[in-house]
Amino acid sequence: MRIEPERYELFEAPAYTFTLDRREFLGVAGVLVTLTFTGEAHAQTTPAGARIHVGDNGIVTVLTGKVEVGQGARTEVAMAVAEEMGVALDNVRVVMADTSLAPNDGITAGSRTTPSTIPAVRKAAAAARGVLPAGSVKPVKDWTVLGKPHHRIDAREIVTGAHQYPSDIRRPGMLYGSVLRAPAYAATLASADIEAGRKIEGAVVVRDGDFIGCAAPTSHAARQAVDAIAKTAQWKTAAHPASKDLFEYLKAHRSTSRQPREQTRGSVEPALAEPAKKLSGVYRVPYIQHAPMEPRAAVAEWSDGSVTVWTGTQNPFGVRDQLAQAFRIPASRVRVIVPDSGGGFGGKHTGEVAIEAARIAKEAGKPVCLRWTRQEEFTWAYFRPAGLFEIEASLDAGGRIAAWDFTNYNAGTAGIATPYATPNVRTRFVYCDSPLREGSYRGIAATANNFARECFIDELAAAAGADPLEFRLANLDDARMRGVLEAAAREFGWERRAKTAGIACGTEKGSYVAACAAVRAEGGRVHVDELVMAFECGAILNPANLRAQIEGSIIQGMGGALSEEMLFENGKLLNGKFAQYRVPRFRDVPAKMRVIMVNRPDLASAGAGETPIIAVAPAIANALFAATGARRRALPLRA
Amino acid sequence: MNVSFTVNGKRVAVDTDPTRPLLEVLREDLALTGTKYGCGEGQCRACTVLMDGRPVTSCLTPVRAAAGKSVTTIESLAGGGALHPVQQAFVEEGAMQCGYCVPGMVLRTVALLRDKPHPSDREIEDGLNGSLCRCCGYPNIVAAVRRASAAGAGKESSDADRA
Question: What is the ipTM for the molecules in this complex?
Answer without folding.
Answer: 0.97
